[in-house]
Amino acid sequence: MWLLLAAAYSPMASARYANGSSYADLAERLVGLDARLAAVPAAARTTAFGEASQHRDFIAAELESKGPRWIAAVGYVALWQRMHRAEEALVAIEPRSQVISDALNDEWRLRDSTVDHHEDLAADIESARQYLMTQRVADGAATSGIRTETQARSLLRMVRYAIDDFRDKRRSGLVRAKNLLMATMIITELFAFALLALAVVNHAPRSAVVAGIVFFLVGALVGLFNRLAQQASTGTTTDDYSLAGVGLVLTPTLSGLAAVGGVALTGMLAWMLAPTAPDTSVVMRPSLLTMPLTWP
User: Fold this and answer.
1) Do 253 and 192 form a contact (C-beta atoms < 8 A)?
2) Where do the structural domains in the chain lie, given as residue ranges?
3) What is the mean pLDDT of residues 3-29?
4) Which is nearest to 152 in space by CA: 133, 129, 118, 122?
5) Best-predicted range by mean pLDDT (5-19, 36-50, 165-179)
6) pTM
7) How far apart are CA 239 and CA 241, in angstroms?
């Protein structure tokens, strides 16, 4: 059955279907990158153009590939890094009007951001942008130290790298958290099945197994209700690469195991604290709290 399910869901292990929103964003940016590369004059197609073209070809090929990297979402992070490196390379060769427009956009992105040294980066953008707009070397040298257009473009490229690197690290952090949570979920569920298998192998009473399952389901339902309340109050405004979805799947497992463990602990404490006199009605009285403790 696992082989049949793997064959049925194999298309999900592709960039197009593993995360449709990331695929759509990358495909859209790729179209824009193609247009920008085509608009570069032939005389300006230097090493930076070749660098951007290689990144573009790699992205286009990877978007049509399959593999576990898309399920783990590390493939999307790698492609976003490639996309950013290509766009940064174009700063050195694109027309001045396009570079000024992109610099203004970067300046807006830095406002009230949490990027390290965002104020200094915004000042560098302003200096380079003003130099490219005025083209007066004397004034630029007196105010910002920028003496050539190449220097101004290099400064804008470094600022763009700082912004893109900040966003790439945020994406990478989400992916690492999601993969770690997924590994935790798999290990936890394997241990949960092991506990159930141990009870069955040791011929636990059917009533005890049913009671444990009931407590597990009740705890899972309560955990899901709590998760639903939290999700309704916070919501998800950005693509988290299924981090919230993995947490949602893990919630009933942890809540169910916590419920069973809490009931078992309560029963053990009741057994230990019960009086040792022959008439121990509290211990001998059958109840749901003591049913899981009747296992051999």
Assistant:
1) yes
2) 11-94, 202-294
3) 87
4) 129
5) 165-179
6) 0.78
7) 6
